[in-house]
Amino acid sequence: MSKISKFFKGGGSAASKGRRAPSAQEALARLRETEEMLSKKQEYLETRIERELALARQHGTKDKRAALQALKRKKRYEKQLSQIDGTLSTIEFQREALENSHTNTEVLKNMGYAAQAMKKVHENMDLNKIDDLMQDITEQQDVAQEISDAISNRAGFGEEFDE
Asked: Domain range holding 59?
């Protein structure tokens, strides 16, 4: 296997089998590091572009060859800057997708824990016992209503009886 293919493929299948997949936090950290590195490269290229433009203006009509060389370098730097912009967009998209995936995984885990907890809570509940309890409650509420009605009815004190 050539050195270039080893570099891009990670050294072959035996080496890749021994590796474990990175965690979401590790991958996010690496993506952020890459973003920072590319941002610094962007700043560097922007200053180089400005410097080349100033150099081209300085040489202007006096030294056309030097001015053209400066403009060519500026164009190369702009092309690199454009490529870095595209790469940064791709990395940002991947980082956001990974963050969303990690969030969804955590939500799913927590929902699983909640489902297990609910299952444990409902383990000791019997549907027949619940029905019996609800009937008892209904009966007691009916009794309480009858008592309340009996108390709230006016007593016949002072009324005359009809013969």
From this structure: 24-124
